[in-house]
Amino acid sequence: NAGVMQNPRHLVRRRGQEARLRCSPMKGHSHVYWYRQLPEEGLKFMVYLQKENIIDESGMPKERFSAEFPKEGPSILRIQQVVRGDSAAYFCASSRTAGELFFGEGSRLTVL
Amino acid sequence: KNEVEQSPQNLTAQEGEFITINCSYSVGISALHWLQQHPGGGIVSLFMLSSGKKKHGRLIATINIQEKHSSLHITASHPRDSAVYICAVRVPSGGGADGLTFGKGTHLIIQP
Hints:
The complex is a heterodimer of chains A (112) and B (112).
Chain A: E1 5-7, E2 10-13, E3 19-24, E4 31-37, E5 43-50, E6 53-56, E7 65-68, E8 75-79, E9 88-95, E10 102-103, E11 107-111
Parallel strand pairs in A: 2-11
Antiparallel strand pairs in A: 1-3, 3-8, 4-5, 4-9, 5-6, 7-8, 9-10, 9-11
Chain B: E1 4-7, E2 10-14, E3 19-25, E4 31-37, E5 43-49, E6 52-56, E7 59-64, E8 69-74, E9 83-90, E10 100-102, E11 106-111
Parallel strand pairs in B: 2-11
Antiparallel strand pairs in B: 1-3, 3-8, 4-5, 4-9, 6-7, 7-8, 9-10, 9-11
């Protein structure tokens, strides 16, 4: 049973480009959470999704950021027109119910 | 607003020492997580607890709900325990639908 898989592990983008981060939850998990960890700061909640539904996106910036979790395939966090301040580690976690979380290895975005 | 405070922020110890990391929070919670993050690595969930004490190998986690305080102990510490340890609390509301609010982490270094 593979763990939570995130890719890419590292992503470099220039300002104005788009970044797409993927997360495949653990088998049998239908709850997916995205967190952002800025340099020298703690983890911050961004969005919580269940299959095909966004449950809570209160932690997501209102512009340029979007997330989806389609019926088939991984969850995707999309950042349009990236800026330097988007440089961070983005972690995905999954759970079967609102219980124990299992985290991925993270995707580290660097915006030049 | 729920605040999660960890202490110490940084801790350096010698191999074999008994380690204690503390976490205090300000509002009532339903559960508390201890997470481990290695440099440049992913996040591993160590414990989820809502009362009492849990033990896994050389790691012990305790929580005192009345005092709003939890401790993570490492017995017979080893250099491979060097990591950032993060406390996260689940509140019934707030912090996103998953209700998690994170501490900033404790940077632990175990020297051989």
